[in-house]
């Protein structure tokens, strides 16, 4: 059975989709808000996400970003926002498809079948733990000794890229290109500054790191 996480704050829609999708052979995990959706995605083996953008606790784009931090599960946006700008934003954030409300059940079922066929398997663990700190990829949060570590968006982007490639050498050029953009591919001093900041925040001995490692002249490596 394909398991579908449905995220919508309208009880009638949530209930109707539960009944109809179950009747068509799907297992449904309902969620009324973004926070519950991110938790459900971590605790259930989800195959496809059907997501409304207008949620009471956070924008649907934030949910997409949270999911894309650790999983490539197909995401179908189901929204009353009809503007092309909204569609482009959702797709750029990582959504795979966009269906506007009101919608037909047959259309949604067809989109679900297509999403299930192209579903990937490249899913990382949402929680990455080391002896010093824990990285929550789904919620974009870092804790050390149980306390939250304040991260700038750039620090998070660098850390996330390394953590999602555990044990693998990630080149300076790749990090600079993905985090800052192609124009910064040779600006290695940017990266040295941010790696030093990350080590000060996360390593027990920043001068002798054991998790955020430098490969001289090549790049960096994350070790658990």
TrEMBL record:
Modified residue annotations for 4-aspartylphosphate: 52
One Pfam assignment: Response_reg
GO MF terms held by the record: cis-regulatory region sequence-specific DNA binding; identical protein binding; phosphorelay response regulator activity
SMART domains tied to this protein: REC, Trans_reg_C
Domain Response regulatory: 3-116
GO process terms (BP): positive regulation of DNA-templated transcription
Keyword terms: Cytoplasm, DNA-binding, Phosphoprotein, Transcription, Transcription regulation, Two-component regulatory system
Cellular localisation: Cytoplasm
Main location as per UniProt: cytoplasm
Residues of the OmpR/PhoB-type domain: 125-224
Taxonomic superkingdom: Bacteria
DNA-binding residues (ranges): 125-224
Entry GO CC: cytosol; protein-DNA complex
UniProt xrefs under PANTHER family: KDP OPERON TRANSCRIPTIONAL REGULATORY PROTEIN KDPE (PTHR48111:SF50), REGULATOR OF RPOS (PTHR48111)
Annotated function: Member of the two-component regulatory system KdpD/KdpE involved in the regulation of the kdp operon. Upon phosphorylation by KdpD, functions as a transcription regulator by direct binding to promoter regions of target genes to positively regulate their expression.
Descriptive protein name: Transcriptional regulatory protein KdpE
